[in-house]
Amino acid sequence: MSVAPDTRLQYDILREQYLPAMMDIEKEAYPEPWTVGMFREEMRSKRSFFYTAWVGDNLVGYSGFWLVLDEGHITSLTVRQDYRGYGYGREQLMHLLAVGEERGVRTFTLEVRQSNERARKLYESTGFRAVGTRKGYYSSTREDAIVMLKESP
To answer: Which of 18, 61, 69, 130 has the fewest other C-beta atoms within 10 Å?
Structure first.
């Protein structure tokens, strides 16, 4: 597939009709994929800000965070496998940070697999820093999660 790296993403809120395509992406991306029910809960929750990311009619990925007072907790940032390497993960992250800022977020947190160096480098390059470890956080693999934090300037 040929996708221009400077193609900007278009965003939409998470909608029921996107769930089948999202589940395909989820299963290719994660050893412990979210369930349809988990995504539906995101749609119902008033604290959830969850977006799908598109290039034309192609679902490239999705991302979201929970807003609790002035903290944003990033729950998901996913790019479909054949769209990785074009900066779409970074673009989605910047979108979440901008939405959070508009809503008064002063601190963002997230968990990332210890083995996911690509994601960790992305987060570090945008101002996140490791602040802790959740031992055995991922149940099927017992892999640790690195807790990361970004504070507003």
So the answer is: 69
- How do residues 58-95 score in pLDDT, each as one tens digit? 999 999 999 999 999 999 999 999 999 999 999 999 99
Q: Which residues pair with 53 in a beta bridge?
A: 11, 61
C-alpha to C-alpha distance for 148 and 131, rounded to whole angstroms: 6
State the CB neighbour count (10 A cutoff) for residue 97. Answer: 19
Q: Tens digits of per-residue pLDDT, 22-55?
A: 999 999 998 889 999 999 999 999 999 999 999 9
Q: Return the SS3 of 147.
A: strand
Q: What is the DSSP letter of 118?
A: H
The two structure tokens encoding residue 65: 């965070």
Q: Is the dihedral of CA 16, 48, 78, 113 positive or negative?
A: negative
Instruction: Output the CA angle 1-82-139, nearest 5 degrees.
Output: 170
Given a contact cutoff of 8 angstroms between Cβ atoms, the answer to whether 65 and 100 are in contact is yes
What number of H helices and E strands is found in the chain? Answer: 4, 7
